[in-house]
Structure formats: C-alpha cells, structure tokens
Specification:
Elements lengths: L1 E6 L14 H8 L11 E5 L5 E4 L5 H6 L15 E5 L5 H4 L1 H4 L7 E5 L1 H6 L6 H5 L5 E5 L15 E7 L20 E7 L5 E5 L7 H9 L2 E5 L7 H4 L21 H5 L6 E5 L13 H8 L2 E3 L5 E3 L1
Parallel strand pairs: 3-4, 4-5, 5-6, 9-10, 10-11, 11-12
Antiparallel strand pairs: 1-2, 1-13, 2-3, 7-8, 8-9
The chain binds D-malate (MLT), manganese (II) ion and zinc ion.
C-alpha cells in the first residue's frame, strides 16, 4: 500500500491567511525551523495506479499538482483518483469537492448518512455539484463491516465511528449522531498490512484503541498540543475538546495513548497552526520524537 500525505495542516492551513500567532508570524519571517502545511487530505493506492482520496481540502488543486501520480495524463481530461472518502463534513475536508467539479463523470463519494445530510443541508455542496456532473453517493455504515471500492484494487476499508464534533453548520452540531465523524482502517489485501487514519478524534474509546494496537501505521489527530491552545494565543475561547479534538499533552491525551503502542509507526496529522510541534526545535516536538511519535508534513510518503 502506498500512502501519500497531500495536506497535513488543520482547517486554515499553516500559516493561516489572517493569523499572526507565534507560529504563523515566525514561519512567514523565516524565523522558525519548520514547513508550511496545506489542509488535511491523504491519498492511498493498493496498485500504484488507482488512488482513493481521503477528504477533499480547499487546497486540493495545488496538492494534486504536487503529486504527479494523481495526473497520469492518459486523456485530455484525466485523473487517477477513482473515489473520494470523507471522514466528516467539515469545511477543510469537503470544500475541495467544489474545486473538483470539472470531473467528466459523477464522483463516487463514500460517506455516512450523517455527513451526507450535512452536505445537502447546512453546507449543501452535493446540491451545488448536482448542477455539474453530480455525486454518486455510496453509503458508509458505522457497523465496522469492511467494504471495497470498485477500481481501488487490493484495498479493503473499514469505517470506525469516532467521538468528535459535528461542524458548526450541521443540524446535529450539539447533538452528534453516529457517523458525524469516522476514521478508517485501510488494509492491503495482498500483504495484510493496515493503516489507521483518524484526523479528527475527540476521545479514545476501547474500539479505537484496538484498531490502533493492530495497525502498522497510525495517522491520527495532531490538532493541538494543549486543550486551551487557542485561548492562550488570544484567538478564541473555544477549547479543542469543544471542537472534537483530543490534545496531545494532557493525561490520557494523544501522546499518552500512542506511547505504549509497540507495533505501529505513529504519526500526527491535521496539525493546527497554533501547535508548538510545528517548530522542529521546540521542546514539544523534541518530546514527541523522544517518544517515537512523528509529525506529518506535506508530501510525506509511506509504503507498507
Ligand atoms: C476542525 O477540524 O475542527 C476544522 O479544522 C475546523 C475548520 O476547518 O474550520
Ligand atoms: Mn479539520
Ligand atoms: Zn496561526
């Protein structure tokens, strides 16, 4: 299985257009050891030819150009993306669908009923796309039954229900329903190797830990180092937990959870621009490194 990280930042990317937080200011001025990041998306292939896109970020155009296998150039209009899977209905994970409206046929989009509901009501992207080639929706259930995707040879997928938050525009914003947020186990049917991917994760439930323990690679929510990171920067009084993200540094947080896992390679993804781990010389980044946890960057390429 070939995994390519197209975008490793959270919503807003890094630096964020209007942000002058400690990190955004320093990266613009070249005063920090680190790299900019586009918004959250990965792509996975079992045969090296056909690719499944996980989440479609507003930065998709530049992300596609940065990874040539997605544009094989076999016809005047072409793409190597055979299907799109959505983890949730958040703006940073779905707005790219609008940028992909020139596709020559309906996109095969896989998401839960809850996400489809958001994308036809609060943020009606699917309705807008119906004026172009439309969306061929495939329902993803949360009963953890593995499924395959036509065209995605050699891969098997399992949606893993997660506790997180529905987006601000969702009809279920303060009353989340199963399927508002899912992660995925992606298995290579030839090698048996698997990736666990969960860019938005609010709570480590037992079943989630089980998937993590059994994974060869984990790509997991790296949004914030501390729960009150946004208020500490004077940006917002919202806690990360109120946005459905579990922080890295607290007791029972992401770092505590990942540390004891022996089998998987452990990588943080969906990193908010306020997070000190973006500075490769920060004590927080060094602490992660010491604990065998990596920080994802755009263009990171993984083969398992
Ligand atoms: C989130 O995951 O909470 C999002 O990044 C928020 C956003 O895109 O505005
Ligand atoms: Mn996000
Ligand atoms: Zn910032």
């Amino acid at each position: 299985m070939h995994i390519h990280l197209l975008g490793t930042g959270a919503g807003g990317g890094f630096p964020q257009w209007n942000c002058n937080c400690h990190n955004c200011r320093r990266i613009r001025r070249g005063e920090m050891k680190g790299t900019p990041r586009t918004q959250s998306s990965i792509t996975v292939s079992g045969n090296g030819k056909d690719w499944v896109l996980f989440n479609a970020s507003p930065d998709i155009r530049v992300q596609l150009e940065a990874f040539p296998p997605l544009q094989p150039g076999r016809a005047v209009r072409d793409t190597a993306i055979c299907a799109i899977i959505l983890c949730d209905a958040q703006i940073d994970h779905t707005t790219g669908l609008i940028m992909l409206r020139e596709h020559i046929k309906p996109w095969d989009v896989y998401c839960t009923t809850a996400v489809r509901e958001d994308l036809t009501t609060g943020y009606p992207i699917f309705n807008v796309l119906s004026y172009f080639r439309g969306v061929n929706w495939h329902e993803i259930t949360t009963d953890q039954t593995p499924f395959s995707i036509s065209g995605a040879d050699g891969l098997r997928f399992t949606a893993v229900p997660l506790k997180s938050e529905a987006p601000p525009f969702s009809p279920h914003r303060h009353n989340t329903v199963p399927g508002d947020n899912v992660g995925f186990r992606i298995e290579d049917t030839a090698t048996g190797k698997n990736l666990f991917y969960a860019p938005g994760l609010g709570e480590i439930e037992d079943h989630v830990l089980h998937y993590m323990e059994k994974a060869d690679v984990i790509l997991v929510d790296g949004t914030v180092w501390t729960n009150n990171e946004l208020s500490r920067e004077g940006i917002s009084d919202k806690l990360a937990s109120e946005m459905g993200h579990l922080d890295q540094s607290s007791k029972g947080g992401i770092m505590d959870t990942l540390k004891p896992l022996q089998r998987p390679r452990k990588i943080l993804i969906h990193i908010n621009n306020t997070n000190p781990i973006l500075d490769e010389e920060s004590p927080e980044h060094i602490e992660l490194e010491r604990n065998g946890i990596e920080v994802a960057y755009d263009g990171m390429d993984i083969k398992i």
